[in-house]
Amino acid sequence: MSSLVKKTPLYTAYAGSALLETPLLNKGSAFTAEERLAFNLAGLLPPRYETIEEQVSRAYMQYKSFDTAINKHIYLRVIQDNNETLFYRLLQQHLEEMIPIIYTPTVGDACEQFSDIYRSARGLFISYQDRHQLDDVLRNATKRKVKVIVVTDGERVLGLGDQGIGGMGISIGKLSLYTACGGISPAYTLPVMLDVGTNNEKLLNDPMYMGLRQKRVNQAEYDEFVDLFIKAVKRRWPEAIIQFEDFAQPNAMPLLQRYRDQVCCFNDDIQGTAAVTVGTLLAACRSKNTRLSEQKVVFVGAGSAGCGIAEQVISQMVAEGLSETQARAQVYMVDRFGLLTDTTPGLRDFQQALTQSSATIAQWSYSSEFPSLLDVMNCAQPGILIGVSGQAGLFTEAVVRAMKKGCTTPVIFPLSNPSRQVEATPEQVINWTDGDVIIATGSPFAPVEFNGKRYAIAQCNNSYIFPGVGLGVIASKARLISDEMLREASKTLAAASPKANNGSGGLLPAFTELAALSKVIAFNVAKVAMQQGLALELDDAQLQQKIDDNFWVPQYRQYKRVSA
Ligand SMILES: O=C([O-])CC(=O)C(=O)O
Ligand SMILES: [Mg+2]
């Protein structure tokens, strides 16, 4: 492994039970004889010295003893809160099996049941009531040198709506992937939950609910609070990346626009999802010997995520040679009232440039006020269908069959998370297209057998993008995260597609390749940041060295004691 394995000892003043209770430092039974002596651990641990491999075997045996995904999740979180090195070593060895447990889909259940399954503290819960003491709150964080913050207000968690304080689950899950797949040391990551109340009645009436028991604060209070938070972060950790996660539509885009030129931040649901989707679309088009600019693309779900992807698709079409007008004419946004057209009332500002002209649809035959998804399939005959609606079942048999009639090998991405919110299951899509389809989902799905053929289901999830982008930003000390940097991440992902490169295999690399892929994404993204004058100036060898130096591997270091 080219990553740096730190051979130098780590000096710490922690000792005795305090050392065992510090998850970043705890080694449990792996503390050596000398360390047990030096750190006053005698008698606090069973006498046998174990290696991390032995600890992993026990932990895996225990993991296997749990029958349900949520209990496996709870168990892994307990290990994480007890011994982070062991947690990541266990994860590294069983990555494909455990990612769906610590991340989507199980993390959705963990968010919904957050207060019920709560075990111990992690990250920062910053409530609206703390707004005048944010510097103190940030100083209380157990991590001193924070490089990545994933912050949510829990208002739109995956496709599950307002989960209030339960949103903390998604911040924790994303950061676990930053470490497992992007090599960011857990010592540098901080999950944050901004608790401004919840409008979820079920939570407000739940005696177990641990968040503020009030309705969400009003818009002016909210904006002021978020602003105080961003400023406090800027004072405490000026270089930290702030990843906005699972904010509801009315806040997601405005917050991104307000802060993206001031602080090193991005919105994972808008920009991360757009980057992974465009990358996966490029791979799909390449494996079909076509170009994105030759396709008509239909989106179901015209929220900030759908519109964010649509704008990136348009940029890509323009980069391939279309005029902007041509590109926009090839993109169709459908929401619950039907196709967005220039006569649709009440459009949000980010939807306005994504409408179809009434002149185009005047030639269509449709019966309701605005063309339905099925009408769009029949009349526009798109080659690509993308679901970001958060609504299960919207890709009906009629819709998929109509699409198949109008094109060869449709590209269908039901992306809503977690699995139960998916617009159609891979099995349905494969059945309704007689197996002639390129498919990717947002949450993981098992391979599908159809007519003796096995279809691997690519997981088009932003986890292909953010760990590598984060690593690149940290390694190059980039000040901001530009669209060009994210576009480079998409291109790098597309270039790694086994199916596009070899004609067979998965549309996207396996999750087990993610650490290696993240390093390549980091390198390419950092190069773009440098070209744009946003980062340190490094030559290729220096940059690679920085990436390797920043790539943490889960191994115990030797400890030496310093007096407190
Ligand atoms: O967390 C995921 O799996 C993808 C994502 O950002 C979302 O659905 O909000
Ligand atoms: Mg999200």
From TrEMBL:
Annotated (S)-malate binding sites: 156, 417, 461
InterPro entries per record: Aminoacid_DH-like_N_sf (IPR046346), Malic_enzyme_CS (IPR015884), Malic_N_dom (IPR012301), Malic_N_dom_sf (IPR037062), Malic_NAD-bd (IPR012302), Malic_OxRdtase (IPR001891), NAD(P)-bd_dom_sf (IPR036291)
Source organism per UniProt: Rheinheimera lutimaris
Gene Ontology CC entries for this record: cytosol
Residues at the active site: 103, 174
Family per record: Belongs to the malic enzymes family.
Protein name: malate dehydrogenase (oxaloacetate-decarboxylating)
Reaction it catalyzes: (S)-malate + NAD(+) = pyruvate + CO2 + NADH; oxaloacetate + H(+) = pyruvate + CO2
